[in-house]
């Protein structure tokens, strides 16, 4: 019956199957059957859009935990509460749900439950307008990391610190938050945490009027790119470089920055980076003398890159369509 819940598309049907396991539990009172019902109730909550319904299912798992005091059922309830945080629109309520997972952690001190709480706290930072509160939640995850030193919890803290940069009005503070992610990266050397730092450095560059400072931040992302050669990190560097061209008045320097984006494009041929180079070249052309050869040359280059971008988009759409028609499963 538990296996059926994993394949059943209808949430109410999955819950009914969990009830059937509960009927078995009344007659065969074992922790193994209780765990099966707990997992079925968790499956019933997957894709459930109603946060209150999700929490009610998590509470039912909690009732099982009162009678069958096992770390496996506790972990299942922690995962169910984590799922609720993904649907809950209220940040304070998400934090309260993370507190509930913390109560489970006090009784069942496992890295898996600690990770569930870390992810719930990360979810509480999403759309949090109070940057100080956001950073405090990140610090809370840091406390978990001290007791359960895993790269997964470190990533959750990095994501929370990144979320703190989105609402932080002070550019230097945003950069300081990016530095904190860098400290995590020194301890947990993963491309996922590196990407979080690259994105935080991009956020630090948003609205930066000093082209030189923007390029310094881009260089820092470039250092990450040298270590973790991913298209996602390359895109973050390209975004910072493009932003630098928006405030640069000197045509030659603007073109030089656009050329740096072009170097990234050679290594990571993506439509997003191509579009940024085309826009950067247009920015350079704007500051060139009207009807000058340089202006026309830059406009011609921008148009060429724009066409390359459109061709990349067409090829990507063709690959997606081809993949969809193949009938294969991911």
Description:
With 330 residues, this protein is an all-alpha fold. Helices cover 81% and strands 0% of the residues. Helix 6 packs antiparallel against helix 7 (111-125), helix 9 runs antiparallel to helix 10 (171-187) and helix 13 runs antiparallel to helix 14 (251-267). The longest helix has 33 residues, at 293-325. The two termini are 25 Å apart.
Q: Quick one: how many beta strands?
A: 0
What would the average pLDDT be, to the nearest integer?
Answer: 91
Could you give the order of the helices and strands?
HHHHHHHHHHHHHHHH
Uncertain runs are 325-330
Number of helices: 16
| Terminal CA distance | 25 Å
Major β-sheet, in short? none
Rg on CA atoms, Å: 25 Å
Q: Which oligomeric state applies?
A: single chain
**Share of helical residues:** over 70%
Q: By helix and strand content, what is the structural category?
A: mainly alpha
How much beta, percentage-wise?
A: under 5%
State the shape.
elongated
Summarize the structure.
This protein is mainly alpha-helical and 330 residues long. The protein is built from 16 helices and no strands.
What are the SSEs and their pairings?
Blueprint: H1 2-7, H2 11-27, H3 31-45, H4 51-67, H5 71-85, H6 91-107, H7 111-125, H8 131-147, H9 151-167, H10 171-187, H11 191-205, H12 211-227, H13 231-247, H14 251-267, H15 271-286, H16 293-325
